Amino acid sequence: MLDLITQYINNPDHHDVLAIVKGFRNGAVYGAKVRFPHALVMSFLFRSGSLEDKLKFVFDATKTHSKNLAKFVTIYKTLMYVQRKIVGKEQNGHSFIAGLIGGYFVFGENNNINQQIVLYVFARIMVGLAKLPVSRKTMEEPKHTFPIFAAVVWGIVMWLFRHDRDVLQPSLQASMQYLYLDSDHWASLKNFLWHNK
Question: Pfam family of this protein, just one (predicted)?
Answer without folding.
Answer: Tim17
